[in-house]
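User: Need the bound-state model for heme C:
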Amino acid sequence: MKPNIRLRTRVLFCSLFTVFFSGFLSAQEVQLDFDYFKNEVQPIFLSKREGNVRCIQCHTRSSNFRLQPLEENQLYWSDEQSKLNFDSASTFVLAGEDPLRSRFLTHPLSADAGGDPFHGGGKHFHSQFDPEWRIMADWVAGATARREPSSIAIRIIQTNAAGDDSTIIDPATNQVVGHISDIEIPHGVVGAPDGSQIYITNEVMHSLDIVDARTLRVKRRIPLSGRPNNLGVTSDGSKVYVAIMEMPGSVDIIDVASMKNIKTVSTKGAIHNVYVTPDSRYAVAGSVHTSFISVIDTRTDELVWDLEMSSGIRPMTFDTNADGSTKNIFVQLSGFHGFAVVDFESRKEIARVEHPAVPGEEAHLDGLQGAPAHGLAVSPDGKTLWSTSKVYSHVYIHSLPDLKEIGRVFVGQHPEWITFTPDGKRAYIGAAGDNATYVVDAIKMEIITKIPVGQVPKRLAMVRMAVD
Ligand code: HEC
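Assistant: Bound-state model below.
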């Protein structure tokens, strides 16, 4: 990989600045911050780096650097345990001094990057620019909060439903620029609006995994009340709503500031997808099992109304009135090759559109999992509705509000989900049967390229991501 000269110069300047600045302060004046340690440094002890064992696996017993053991099913340390970890790590730190004088920083750092010669636990960081090593070094320098990111980038994150990773795509180049690993069966993905972190539901551990946008490591796993499916985030970034796919059914609400699961709202049936409406006033949840749509008011976090449809609720999306409030819910249904339209105000189904066969295209009826049409989105300008068909491997494009079909594009085997770039020029579609993400020119309605990703790519999302 080509070194990023600009970044290096900037980082070098920062570290020189830290060293220079700390020359004025005696070591006693620099306080090691507990909250920063608890929330930013500790995740590094749990995260999986390729080729390394996690710090926690050894340090509950090896050496004098002691981490508190976690009970089975305990996903993070309590405050008391964190305090003990903090005290132990602090003994290997010279606060405010040259980072290369702290054993805590030199031991896991490669010798040729400035680390010491040997660590019984191996070398975890191969450069002082490693984002995780920098989080630790900033703690030693007295940081109380993360550095500001250098910029925010737009990315497409494709989860791979049968893979152990999610693929990160740069829509400016359509290249794969990263991976998020260590989440087996990632289901849904959404990004924090400020770009700081990414939320992915973990079907194996029954957790909401918070991924740091700059390190790409799981920073925290929040325990859920059951097996999760999809999720949604409010536009102010304060709450995440997680679909719990277990009867009798519920939506878990995660408070982002405290990283706590604050409420489990009962719904009409196990929930497959939950969405936050574009104005963030409601969380709309759908049940495949009971065919109910459950609507939660995000101010009170109470269920305010529900609606039973003719069959199971699959993907949904929304269009808006001039004031931004929700106008219609578009909904795909079990066993129906098309979508229905629900008027949000009257809470009634008002229309249904069935997708016709595509001439010359063979119908695929195997492995549909009850959902012939799965993947639905309104374009950012609100003028078109895109619906993907697993039967005919196409996306059907309809004009809004008149719901006339205006185009069709082949988008691979088993297309499952769709998202747009914020400018509306590109649509990205996860094609589960092709292990690829298709990129469609949304204006010309034609394929630009297809990007190989992991096994069985389903959900994907456009996210803003902080860059170090
Ligand atoms: C495979 C087991 C293993 C892993 C993983 C591991 N360590 Fe260690 N670590 C050791 C052993 C053994 C020692 C004692 C021998 C030595 O000093 O190298 C040690 C020593 C240390 C020391 C010095 C403590 C002392 O008593 O002098 C620090 C600090 C440290 N490790 C930090 C870390 C950090 C941070 C990580 C994760 C990034 C980590 N270690 C991962 C096994 C491990």
